[in-house]
Amino acid sequence: MKILDKVQGLPDKRKKIIVWVVLIITAVFLFKLYVQNMQEKVRNIEGEKIKQELQIPKLQEELKGLLQFEIPEIK
Q1: 64 burial level (CB within 10 Å; 0-12, 13-18, 19+)
Q2: Is the residue at 72 inside a domain?
Q3: Phi, psi of 45, rounded to the nearest 5 degrees
Q4: Rounded to two decimals, what is the model's pTM?
Q5: For residue 27, what are the CA distances in angstroms to 6, 51, 56, 69?
Q6: How far are the Cα atoms of 2, 17, 52, 56 from residue 47, in angstroms, in the given order?
Q7: Looking at the domain assignment, is residue 40 inside a domain?
Q8: Are 4 and 15 in contact (CB under 8 A)?
Q9: pLDDT per position in the chain (75 positions), as tens?
Q10: DSSP three-state, residue 10
Q11: What residues make up the domain containing 10?
């Protein structure tokens, strides 16, 4: 507890600096964990499985049918 006694004896300005440094280091560490976790989740997503779940091939066929329209001939 000597470290705690030393910190308590410091001026308020230095205490605030120590708190902010610890806070920033903790935030960076947690952000790094968050990014690694998100990268792992993205890697685990199977692209083909998502296509099948969203029925993208069926949707593409329907869109092709909608985009094909006949232009009447003008005589």
Answers
A1: exposed
A2: no
A3: -75, 130
A4: 0.55
A5: 25, 36, 40, 56
A6: 56, 47, 9, 11
A7: yes
A8: no
A9: 788 889 889 999 999 999 999 999 999 999 999 999 988 887 777 666 666 666 666 776 777 776 666 666 776
A10: coil
A11: 2-66
Own/partner pairs for 70-74, CB < 8 Å, 24+ apart? none
CB 7 within 8 Å of CB 15: yes
pLDDT of residue 64: 72
Cβ proximity of 21 and 28 under 8 Å: no
Domain for residue 44, yes or no? yes
Q: Report the number of distinct structural domains present in the chain.
A: 1
Contacts with 39 (C-beta within 8 Å, 6 or more apart), sequence order: none
Phi–psi pair at 63, nearest 5 degrees: -65, -40
Gap between the Cα atoms of 28 and 35, Å rounded: 10
Distance CA(10)–CA(19), nearest Å, equals 12
User: What pLDDT is stored for residue 69 in this prediction?
Assistant: 64
Task: Note whether residue 74 is domain-resident.
Answer: no
